[in-house]
Write a structure and sequence with these properties.
heterodimer; A: about 220 residues; mainly alpha; MetI-like fold; 9 helices; elongated; B: about 210 residues; flat
Chain lengths: ~220, ~210
């Protein structure tokens, strides 16, 4: 067979199964992103407080999470937490926990950055115009913060989807694992299907992330000023 | 656990070696791509932007699977180490390119014109005026990329390389000393990454005011 397994890709429901695997990756990413955005906004607000205790705690949290490879964090939760607390966590639940912890750290830092990037005179000018504190936030600070934040938050989503590919290494059956299964199942009839199947996985990830990246850079350009 | 420490040391050396090789090649790829985009070279520019989009929107793990399991099917056999370095360079090149490009684009055109006006050649302006400034702007992102790439090396165990993750998983599987194995893993990565992170922060502080007009 010289078609190198492109036939295998579309044989039976193989392609649908691959898409199903991709959906698991995307589902875990989306859940984690939504949780991260909510918790990250809280963390970001917490980080702008002048309290030394919250400053120290959030800094240690942020630095630890950001310096550890995400795969190490996955191992810590999947193998470590299971043993330490005697609880049984599935791979998918561990993944959501880890990516939420990581996403919250990243998002928290973005929120903090966006908040402190609003110059002080914006608050003062608002107050000078006779606006109340809540009005200043509602009409001046939050709209500007959101414009800086939304492209970055969308970028975080693509990073999340890419990072979620790691869950195959803690035994979650997702797109890469299904690709392996398909290749193994056809090992005797089409021994060379790996090229096309893994190539397909590569492009599926690309097709999932690329539109989101484009959207982020479009918004970033549009809102630059 | 002490007697397994040498396994971690060996693994850390391997990670560092492959990581440094990948980062150096990434820097070269990144610089070349950034220059192609800076000078808007006709056809090459297109190729570079396709490469950057492909590399930035796919995970390293999938790239490695394709290199290690896919390519041998059309007769291209690459060793584990080769796949790791190629994969890391393919991924890192685009990130480095973006870092260099943002630095180069931040330098105003008037600087080139002024340089030419006082009689410097184009190459001299690039070498003595544009580049030093662009680099100082790029440094924070370049450092972040270095840390990012070292972290990404943690997936190398998927292509049968005995890196830190591989050793930890092995020890967990063999002896069920999960806590110890994981603790050593965390410590190993802290030893690898904390110094880089400190150097990055220091560099960033040193170079912050190097730009013109700040």
């Amino acid at each position: 067979m010289q078609d190198l397994g492109i036939r295998v890709l579309f044989m039976g429901n193989n392609f649908i199964r691959l898409l199903g695997g991709l959906w698991i990756t995307i589902k875990i990413s989306l859940i984690s992103v939504v949780l991260s955005i909510v918790l990250g906004i809280l963390l970001g607000l917490l980080m702008t407080l002048k309290n030394p205790v919250t400053k120290a705690v959030t800094k240690v949290y942020l630095e630890f999470i950001r310096i550890m490879p995400q795969l190490v964090l996955l191992f810590l939760v999947y193998f470590g937490a299971t043993k330490a607390f005697g609880i049984q966590l599935s791979g998918q639940v561990s993944a959501v926990i880890v990516f939420t912890l990581w996403g919250t750290a990243e998002m928290g830092d973005l929120v903090r950055g966006a908040l402190i990037s609003i110059p002080k005179h914006q608050y003062e000018s608002g107050a000078a115009l006779g606006l109340e504190s809540s009005q200043i936030y509602r009409y001046i600070i939050i709209p500007q913060t959101l414009r800086r934040l939304i492209p970055l938050a969308i970028n975080l989503t693509t990073r999340m989807i890419k990072t979620t590919s790691l869950i195959v290494l803690i035994g979650v059956v997702e797109v890469l694992k299904i690709a392996q299964q398909i290749i193994e199942a056809n090992r005797y009839t089409v021994p060379d299907s790996a090229l096309w199947i893994y190539g397909a996985v590569f492009f599926l990830y690309f097709l999932a992330c690329w539109p989101i990246s484009l959207l982020a850079s479009k918004l970033e350009k549009k809102w630059k000023n | 656990m002490g007697k397994y420490a040498h396994l971690y040391v060996d693994a850390a050396k391997l990670t560092l070696l492959l990581g440094v090789a990948g980062i150096l090649i990434s820097l070269i790829i990144g610089l070349v791509c950034a220059l192609i985009q800076y000078y808007r070279a006709p056809v090459l520019k297109r190729i570079v932007s396709v490469y950057i989009e492909l590399s930035r929107n796919t995970p390293l793990l999938v790239q490695l699977f394709f290199l290690y399991f896919g390519l041998p099917k059309i007769g291209i056999m690459i060793s584990s180490e080769g796949c790791a370095v190629i994969g890391l360079s393919f991924l890192g090149g685009s990130y480095m390119a973006e870092a260099f490009r943002s630095g180069l684009e931040a330098i105003e055109k008037s600087q080139m014109e002024s340089g030419l006006a006082i009689g410097l050649t184009h190459a001299q302006v690039m070498r003595h005026v544009i580049f030093p400034q662009a680099l100082s702007i790029s440094v924070p992102v370049l450092c972040a990329n270095v840390i990012f790439l070292i972290k990404e090396t943690s997936v190398f165990s998927a292509v049968a390389l005995a890196d830190l993750m591989y050793v930890a998983k092995d020890l967990i599987g063999l002896y069920y000393q999960t806590d110890e194995a994981l603790l050593m893993l965390v410590i190993a990565y802290l030893i690898l990454l904390l110094p880089i992170s400190f150097v990055a922060a220091w560099l960033e502080r040193r170079l912050r005011y190097a730009g013109f007009g700040n």
